[in-house]
Each structure stands twice: as C-alpha cells, then as structure tokens.
Amino acid sequence: MENSASSEAFVRFEGVQKSYDGRTLVVKDLNIDVPRGEFLTMLGPSGSGKTTSLMMLAGFETATKGNIYLNGQTINNVAPHKRGIGMVFQNYALFPHMTVAENLAFPLQVRNMGKSDIEERVKRALDMVELGNFGDRRPAQLSGGQQQRVAVARALVFEPELILMDEPLGALDKNLREQMQYEIKHIHERLGVTVVYVTHDQSEALTMSNRIAVFNDGVIQQLAPPTDLYEKPINSFVAQFIGENNKLSGTLLSTQDGICTVRLPTGEEVTALDINTDDIGKESTLSLRPERVFLDPVEGQCDNVFNGKVEEVIYLGDHKRVRMNVCGHKDFIVKVPNSTDNKGLQVGGVTAIGWSSKDCRALDPA
Amino acid sequence: MMTNTVEAEGQLTPEEQKLLTADMHRSLRRKKFRALFLVAPLLIFIMITFVAPIVSMLYRSVDNPQVIEYMPNTSAALADWDGNELPGEETFAALVTDLAEGRKNRTIGKAATRLNYEKSQMRSLITGTARKAGRLKPPYKDQVIKIKAGWGDIDTWKVIKRESKSLTASYYIAAFDMETTPDGEIKMLPEKERVYLKMLWRTVWMSVVITLLTLLLGYPVSYLLASLPMGIANALMILVLLPFWTSLLVRTSSWIALLQGQGVINDILVWFGLVADDNRLSMIYNATGTVITMTHILLPFMILPLYSVMKTIPPSYMRAARSLGATPFTAFFRVYLPQSVPGISAGAILVFILAIGYYITPALVGGQSGQFIGNMIAYHMQGSLNWGLAAALGVMLLVLVMGIYALYSRLVGNNNQMTLR
Questions:
Q1: What is the SS3 string spanning chain A?
Q2: Number of domains comprising chain A
Q3: Which of the 8 DSSP states describes residue B332?
Q4: Measured between beta carbons, which residues in chain A are less than 8 angstroms from residue B419?
Q5: Does A138 touch chain B (CB under 8 A)?
Q6: How far is the alpha carbon of A129 from chain B, nearest alpha carbon, in Å?
Q7: Domain CATH code at residue A55
Q8: Are residues A49 and A148 in the same domain?
Q9: Looking at the structure, do residues A209 and A319 belong to the same domain, yes or no?
Q10: Residue A257, domain CATH
Q11: Could you say which residues from 245 to 274 on chain A have a Cβ atom under 8 Å away from some Cβ of chain B?
Q12: What's the maximum distance between 2 C-alpha atoms anywhere in chain B?
C-alpha cells in the first residue's frame, strides 16, 4: 500500500460497491478506515447496506467494485475461513448438535491445535463469559443471554484480531440487552480487539461504540463518535434517525459567521447554526433536540422565543413529554424535567418557549 | 375449586397436589374427547382395513384346519397311535369313511392339497384312493394298500398325524427353507432347493442398494433446492414431483423402452461403437433393471424428507463454521451433515421400507434375478394358492421391517430428540 493512511487503518473499505441484481446498488462507494482496537458500529435502518457491508468484510458476499483491506492486505479474494475474523451472528448460530464446549473447541480443532491446548483455551473462554459450568450443556438448554455469551466466547476463543457482530442482541429482551451491551463493551475494552458491530438500535450504538457510521440508502451519512452524532448531526437524516428531534422547515434568509436566519412558512424567523445549508432563498430544515427547549425562558436566556399551545402531556416519571403547536408545527416535542415548578401545564394552555440558536442546527431539506 | 387455590407462599401438600391433578384432568377431559372424536373415523377405518387383515394374515400363517376338519375320523384314530408300525384296521376303516365322505362333499381335495405341501404324492394318494373308497367292504387295510402302495408306508401316516392339529409351524418351516422329516426332525433343505431365504436376502440387499442410490442422487438435489430462493426452488420441486404424478406403469414401461436390448440406450451405445451390436448390454429383466427403475421411482421419497429437514437448517450455521476457520469441506461434514441426519434417516427408512415390500416394478422389469420376496408372496397368493405359506412369508417380511424400524429408532430416534431438546 502506497497510501500512508492505510498503514494505520486495520480495516479499510476503499470505494466499495455492491449490487445483487446488476441494476441497483445496495452499497454505494463505501469508504471507511477502522483503526486497530476501535469499536465501530454500522447503524442504519433495514436495507441501508450495513449488513451487506459486514458480510463483504466477513467474506460471505463479494464486493462488486472496490477493495477491502485487512491489516494492509487486500482480502477481496480470500476465502472466509482464511480471513481469521471472529463473527457473532444474529441468532448466534451455535451448532445445536454440539455441546457448548464442543462449539468453543470447533474453531481450535479446525486449526489443528493440541487437545490439552484446546481444553485449556475453552475453559478460559467459558470463564471469561462466566459460564464455567455450562460446558456439557447443549445450546438449546441455555437461556438467550447465555447463548449470546457462548456465541461471543466462540468468536473470541481463537483470538482473532477482528470481531464482527451482526445484530447480536436483536433476539434478547430489553433488560438483558442492556446488560449484554455492557458486557460486550467491557470485553472489548479488556481484550482490545477491533470490533465492527451492526445494529439498527441507536441506543445500543450510542452505548458501546467508539465511532458510529450511520448508513442510509447505501451511503454513510455521518461517521462520528456517539456524542458528535447526537449533538452535531451534519444532515437531517442523522438528526432525525438518532434520538428525538424537532424538525422545522423554512427558507434560508441570510447567513453570517456561521449563524443563519430561517423564515418559517408561518412568518416567524429563527436563528440557528448554519451547518449544511444551500444558497439563500432555498429550503432548509432546522433540527432541535426536545431537551434543549425551555418553557417560560428567562429574559436573555434564549435568542429564539415563541408561543406554544399545549396539545398533549405525557407523564414519564422523571420527565414529561409535552406535545405543542409551535409556529404551525403540531408535533413539536418539549421534554420538561419533573420539577415542582411546572406542574401547571394544561392541555390547551399557551406558554412561552425558547431555545438558544447554538442548540438549533440548520441542515439540508429532508 | 376454592380449596385448591394456590397460596402465594408455601408448597402444595400431597393432598392438594392430588386434587390439583384431578382438576387438571377434569378440565382436559373435554379436550380429550374432542380429539378422540376427530380421529375416530380414521381409527375405525384403519382397524377394519389394516389391523384386521394383518391379524388375519398372522393367524392364517399358523392356521391348519384342513386335515382335522375334512379327515376327522382318521385324525381321531391316529391320536393314540405310537408311530412305530402301520396303524391297525380301525384306523384304515376311519380313513375309508373320511375319504368316502370327503369325496361326496367334495372336500377331500383340500385335505389332499394341504398334505401334499408336506409330502409329495400325497394328493394323488388321497384323491386316487377316495375315488374307490365308496365301494370298499371291510376289512379295509389290505385293500387300501393294494389301491395305493403309499398307504403301506409308515411315513404317510406320520405326516397325517402331524398335520391333524389345528395349529402348525409347517408354513414357517417352509418359509425358512427347512423341512420336517417324517421322524419330526426339522432340518435345512438341500442348498439348491432353498428359495425364500435367498430371495429375502436379495430383497434386503437390493433395497439397501436402492436406498443408498436414492440418497446419493437425492442429497445434492435437496441441498440445492433448500438453498435456492423460494420461487426457483418451487419450480424445480415440480420437476422432482412430476415423475411422482405419472402412472407407475407408464414410468416402468418407459424404462423398458430405454433399457431393453433394442432400447434407446443400447442403440446409442452401439451407434457410438462403445458396445458391439451382437453384445448389447442386458440392463433390464434382471437385478440391474430392478435397481435402476426402483431408484428412479423412489427418489422423491428421499428428496422430500431431506428437503424439508434441510430447509430448517439456517445458512448461518455454515457461515459460522466458515468464519470460525473451517474449510467448506469441514464445515459441511462437521456442521451441515450432522444436522441433516434426521432427513437422511427419515428418507432412508421410508425408501427402504417401501423398497423391501415392492412388488409391481420387480414383477415387470425384474426378470429372474430381479424378483423380490413380494413377488414370491404374490405367487403363493395367486398362483399356487398356498395362502398359508404366503402369510408366513408376509409375516417374515413384517417382522424384518419392524426389526429394522426398531433398530432405526434406537440409533436415530434418540439422537433426534437430543437435537430437538
């Protein structure tokens, strides 16, 4: 590789395209560098090309165009079993006719390791996932969470440098899923392996990843650490896909020093950060997180202040979600902390609301 | 019932458990009756058309009414006979009475046929004597022996005495290629007179060959069908089933057209000069013909169970094995094949059991060397009218199949449950 960046990248997609039918591209010009030891998540709705990208990396799909590098070597023509990549599948794919220990021994046996060596490593792997006494059970005798741990242990037992995970927590219930998120995160931190993780669940992605690649329509919309993705979305798809978002459409009036003014169809003018707008006079979408909106703002606290009519109040314990009609948008959501001050929210009542222009981002028209 | 309400804390006492069980059964009783009601028509049908004939066949293989029924006086007279020398005058008198009576009622032929199975010449001995029995005057002994010298042979009487019991093992003895000597000793027939065991053995090994061939041909096809997208798989499945929907006779005849001496395959081979015109391959009217034709006919019975099992094996298992470092070969043999075993065993047992009882195809294309035991049973049913022997052979086949099935469920059945659990 002549390119210096690639020597740092452990996994590298370079101009990768994939088409199944020869007419439409499922993955369009994919370029990612994954440094060694990173936990990278491919996040996106179904059909966005994230799983296809993972399968190309694993070797189960061939790239129609472009190159995939692993450790500086192109692996386009390397068979899956020679890539040395550990993989955790959506439904675990534990071999039902083998015991847990046999499942874990499988990757070691096909590598012709010695018997005592295999036993030793299987034991260590089982201890790592706290299933030391479960070696003789069959996968079907384990709970979903236990099967999940065995699948992770099996992908790790032959000490690959790269682990791929294809929606591994999709089949678990909510509590278990959250618990497993931490376990996988901790295993990653402890072992320092590189992980490429595919999911459509944004909270999962936000919890575990170093960086997240948001996929849509075969293209990476944004590749950034979780905080940036949530706080600083660069286009309206990401703003809408990650977290809750208030979307206001309007026309760009002026822009100066990164601050722009957008006129809403109802006539109000909003100032916002100019992130990703077109020329003046063109459409733009404003993105605003519900928790950054204040009720009855103090004088000078917000540079955008409007009136909102309360349409609906949903009580969620620690906070209330208030749906309001603001500037003609009936689905404007405000998150109100549950404090003694704002108990007086009544459906039908009109309140002043406001937000800082630094919390509002002017993006491309959705 | 309020008494059985389970307290949130605390275990049920044994009495409470008993009451709970009774409640449970009571609540399920309606359901059970409903189930019984739904299966009743089929159950009755099967009892009448399947179980009853089998029981009757089992009985017929040991049933022995002819001698005791149609020669009652002789049977009674021989009951106390010690078998050391020719029976006395009163036994001959009983014989003459039976023969005369039997001739009048036209029943003596049945006893004669029955006894002829045990000892050749018995039929002519009995029917020949019966023709004259009406005109005889006592004392009978010498006159009877004069009519047919066979009556002077002590073995004749031993056979009649032996077969004058209402149950007999003689059909089974014949079915195992054995015979009973007049002294009551059971021994194997001379090598070249043995027929049934040889044929049973041939039936078994040819069925094994057919089963293996269907597996060999069916496994890759099923794998392909199971891994293709639904639409294409369904279209190809029609091709698999098409022969299935064609008449058995049509299929068998078309194999005759293909395989016979002047048939398509031989013609092509001769045309290419691979086979001399005067030395054409004989591929039909022998064991080869039976194996080829039956493999083709039974192939769908292998493909369907294989396909249905393979369909349930997610492709992710193979992928997982590959990602763990297994070559395609290892992945197949260690991961895919073991999981397709239920399909293999179901298909194999189905094909084998169908093959072992097959009758029509061997009859049409089997010639001499390709006959199955089923053909022998049919011959005794329709040709020789020796239903007892046909029944005994049928029971042998039934026991063999049940034995094989028991072996199968021991070897494979338990394994299946293990994978399911």
A1: CCCHHHHHEEEEEEEEEECCCCCCCCEEEEEEEEECCCEEEEECCCCCCHHHHHHHHHCCCCCCEEEEEECCEECCCCCHHHCCEEEECCCCCCCCCCCHHHHHHHHHHCCCCCHHHHHHHHHHHHHHCCCCCCCCCCHHHCCHHHHHHHHHHHHHCCCCCEEEEECCCCCCCHHHHHHHHHHHHHHHHHHCCEEEEEECCHHHHHHHCCEEEEEECCEEEEEECHHHHHHCCCCHHHHHHCCCCEEEEEEEEEEECCEEEEECCCCCEEEEEECCCCCCCCEEEEEECHHHCEECCCCCCCCEEEEEEEEEEEECCCEEEEEEEECCEEEEEEEEECCHHHCCCCCCCEEEEEECHHHEEEECCC
A2: 2
A3: I
A4: 96-97
A5: yes
A6: 18
A7: 3.40.50.300
A8: yes
A9: no
A10: 2.40.50.100
A11: none
A12: 100
Position B248 scores a pLDDT of 86
| CA-to-CA dists, residue B174 to A37, B139, B378, angstroms | 80, 38, 16
- Look at A110 and B320 and tell me if their CB atoms are within 8 Å: no
* pLDDT of A65: 92
B319 touches chain A (CB under 8 A): yes
Query: CB-CB: which of A58, A60, A96 is closest to B419?
Result: A96
What ipTM goes with this model?
Answer: 0.81
What chain A residue is nearest to B336 in terms of C-alpha separation?
A95
pLDDT tens-digit series, residues A281-300: 888 999 999 989 888 887 77
Distance from CA of A97 to the nearest CA of B (A): 6
Together in a domain, A131 and A91: yes
Number of Cβ pairs closer than 8 Å across A and B?
74
Q: Is B322 on the interface with A (CB under 8 A)?
A: yes
Domain termination site, one of A201, A236, A271: A236
Residue A357 sits in which domain range? 244-363
Q: Does A258 share its domain with A163?
A: no
CB of B315 within 8 Å of a chain A CB? The answer is no
Q: pLDDT digit of tens for each residue in chain B (421 aa)?
A: 444 554 545 577 888 888 888 888 888 888 889 999 999 999 999 999 999 999 998 999 999 998 889 999 999 888 888 888 888 888 999 999 999 989 888 998 899 999 998 888 889 999 989 888 888 888 888 888 888 888 988 889 998 988 888 899 899 999 999 988 877 888 898 888 888 999 999 999 999 999 999 999 999 999 999 999 889 999 999 988 888 888 888 888 899 999 988 889 999 999 998 888 888 888 889 999 999 999 999 999 999 999 999 999 998 899 999 999 999 999 999 999 999 998 999 999 999 999 999 988 899 898 888 899 999 999 999 988 899 999 999 999 999 999 988 988 887 765 544 444 3
Q: Are A210 and A193 in contact (CB under 8 A)?
A: no
Say what the pLDDT of residue B395 is.
92
Return the minimum-mean-pLDDT range out of A130-139, A332-341, B399-408: A332-341
- Judging contacts by C-beta atoms under 8 Å, the chain B residues touching residue A84 are 325
A224 and A267 inside one domain: no
Q: Is A93 on the interface with B (CB under 8 A)?
A: yes
Query: Among the three residues A218, A236, A254, which one is the final residue of a domain in this structure?
Result: A236
Residues A222 and A343 in one domain: no
- With tokens 């089933």, the residue in question is B241
On chain A, the residues whose CB falls within 8 A of the CB of B335 are 95
A215, A255: one domain: no
Encode pLDDT of A62-101 as tens digits.
999 999 999 989 999 999 999 999 999 988 899 999 999 9
Domain check: are A232 and A297 in the same one? Answer: no
Spell out the long-range contacts of B24-32 with Cβ–Cβ below 8 A and sequence spacing 24 or more. Answer: none
